[in-house]
Amino acid sequence: MISRTLSASSVSFTPTRRRIAALLAMAGIVAAIAAPNMARAQAALDSPLRIVVGYAPGGATDRVARIVGDKLTAKLGVPVIVENKPGAGGRLAAQQAKATPAGQNVLMLANPAVMIVAPLVFKDNGYDAERDFVPVSHVNAYDFALSVSPTLPVRELNHLLAWMRANPQQANVGVPATGSLPHFFGLMVGEKAKVQTQVVGYRGSAPLLNDLIGGQVPIAIDTEDVVLPQHNAGKLRILALSGEKRSPFASNIPTFKEAGLDLAATGWNTFFAPATMPKDKVERLATTIHAVMQDPDTQRKFKDAGMTPVVSTQAQTAAMLKAYKAQWAPVVQKSGYQP
């Protein structure tokens, strides 16, 4: 490369010039070596990215995927497609993401039911949560809400617990699905409060809320974003939320700890990549999602949807998953729950 621009017959080399020429030659060699690697990095996502979601369009997980997906399209320069694969509590989506052919760009957006609970209660999920997937980025957290029917004459958590102890046969607690996080959180409430609870599983939040509002079930546990609009409309009463501190969306509702029960727990949505995805792609997606979650517009959209955005590195995401499993595994195993 240098021989084309400098020649011994036309330039008198001093020691300084020789040193400069040598450095330039070395730089040219390094650039030639680095060019293919840079090209590969730029081409790492030269095809569309699919985000697989294990739930139907319109739900909380789907909304998260679409908010982040829209931002990723601009930052990655490739189309981002949200692909809904509902069924089996999100496990079908995990099976599909695991089976992604080599060379395709796929992320899965999953919650604890898929990545923490299912591996503890199902003998064969069709996937191994820790071996078949790599955590990429934790993007939001949500509280669980304990609500009561307007027909139940209690307005504080301690009054409800007293009523449950006095009426164990009526102390049914509705949850949107058996084996869900609200199900196991209900068991945590019963154990911590030393009250008998009969968990009643529904086929989703809509029929649960209908029965709670109508008085067919006295108590329900579901996620805050689902229940809060009904609470604000006066159709039911939220007595406590499960966060460590009060929710920014419901600052007038106490936490369980403030209400006298030493209990805290949250749910989340986290992006995972198939373990077969090259490490450089995973890292690029992790850093890009991290940047997306720092964007004020992204955070506003999460909050407008009633969800708390989380900015998390790949290492922080892995640490969160480890701590979460340590918290929930004993609860799930002690419950003896069988699908």
Describe the secondary-structure layout.
Elements: H1 15-42, E1 49-53, H2 60-76, E2 80-84, H3 91-98, E3 105-110, H4 112-121, E4 133-148, H5 157-166, E5 172-175, H6 181-193, E6 198-201, H7 205-214, E7 219-223, H8 224-232, E8 237-241, E9 266-274, H9 279-294, H10 296-304, E10 308-309, H11 314-335
Parallel strand pairs: 1-2, 1-3, 5-6, 5-7
Antiparallel strand pairs: 3-9, 4-7, 4-8, 4-9, 4-10
Helix pairs in contact: 2-9, 4-11
Structure keywords:
single chain, 3 domains, alpha/beta, 11 helices, D-Maltodextrin-Binding Protein, domain 2, disordered N terminus, globular, ten-stranded mixed β-sheet, 339 residues, 18% strand
Can you give a write-up of this model?
The chain is of the alpha/beta class. It has three domains: 2-42, no CATH class; 49-139 and 269-335, D-Maltodextrin-Binding Protein, domain 2 (3-Layer(aba) Sandwich), CATH 3.40.190; 143-241, D-Maltodextrin-Binding Protein, domain 2 (3-Layer(aba) Sandwich). It is 45% helix and 18% strand. The protein contains eleven helices and ten strands. Strands 1, 2, 3, 4, 5, 6, 7, 8, 9 and 10 form a ten-stranded mixed sheet that branches. Helix 6 links the parallel strand 5 and strand 6 (198-201). Helix 2 (60-76) packs across helix 9 (279-294). The longest helix has 28 residues, at 15-42.
